[in-house]
Amino acid sequence: MSPFPLEAFLTSLPWAALGVVLVLAVTYAAAVGAGTGGRARHSVMDVAWGPGFVVIAVISFILSAGEGDDGRRVLLLVLTGIWGIRLGAHIGRRARGGHEDPRYVELLKGAHGSRNAYAVRRVYLPQGLVMFFVSLTIQVGMFATGALGWLAAAGLAVWLTGLIFESVGDLQLERFKNDPARKGTVLNTGLWRYTRHPNYFGDASVWAGLFLIAAESWPGVLTVLSPALMIWTLAAKTGKPLTEKAMAGRPGYREYVQSTSGFFPWPPRRH
């Protein structure tokens, strides 16, 4: 196995960072264009989140040509592309024709002076830094020289499990919200019977799977903090906690919390 091409990898980092900056710039322009009443709609950032990783994966794939293992490079590119494009399309379809997300209203209500400048500091810059850091698993994996083996196969299985949970969970939630007869109730069927957040669990599994693919060859294992940050954000920071805070007052939600696993899928508890 050839040694890790450290110099080529370090050379690629500024280009990946530039890709993040371009994604943020385009997203900011789209937010201003989608706004109403002179106010930008900064929740457009959610739509760009998944595709932003795809942009980084494409840049790393191009720059790692002739350096990393081709099988791993293609696998990481394809898996990131499928996940990121599906997620962006889903959020974009869900947000089409709507208003600013309440989370962003809450986040930006303390703005002093220019609201857009405040949004750059509180929304775009933090998410851009997280995007770059989390994507290090993909970036390092693209340059890893070891061949694919059993750990990559396990990573593919974990990724596929995550994609199924995320996509099926999103579909079930979308159908639930579109059913007028279910308005004001709590979704507790399908995958939502086994975890209160199948979409967040699926997202976490996707990144765990990508990490296993990268970690099979040195120094991919050193990027463990990248998926750890993503999983922590989903389970303990801006994913699960904010969603449950918004749902807390809905009739039947307390009973749902008592009977259903908070994150990892598990048979519902009986009372």
Please give the alpha-carbon distance between the first and last residues.
56 Å
What is the helix/strand order? HHHHHHHHHHH
**DSSP, total strands:** 0
**Count, helices:** 11
Report on this model:
There is one protein chain. This protein has 271 residues and is an all-alpha fold. The chain has 2 domains: 1-146, no CATH class; 148-271, no CATH class. It has 11 helices and no strands. Helix 1 (6-34) runs antiparallel to helix 5 (115-134). The radius of gyration is 20 Å and the shape is globular.
Task: Describe the structure in brief.
The chain is mostly helical and 271 residues long. The chain has helices at 6-34, 44-63, 70-95, 102-108, 115-134, 136-143, 150-177, 198-215, 225-237, 240-247, 253-259. It has 2 domains: 1-146, no CATH class; 148-271, no CATH class.
Q: Layout of SSEs?
A:
Elements: H1 6-34, H2 44-63, H3 70-95, H4 102-108, H5 115-134, H6 136-143, H7 150-177, H8 198-215, H9 225-237, H10 240-247, H11 253-259
Please supply descriptive tags for the structure shown above.
mainly alpha
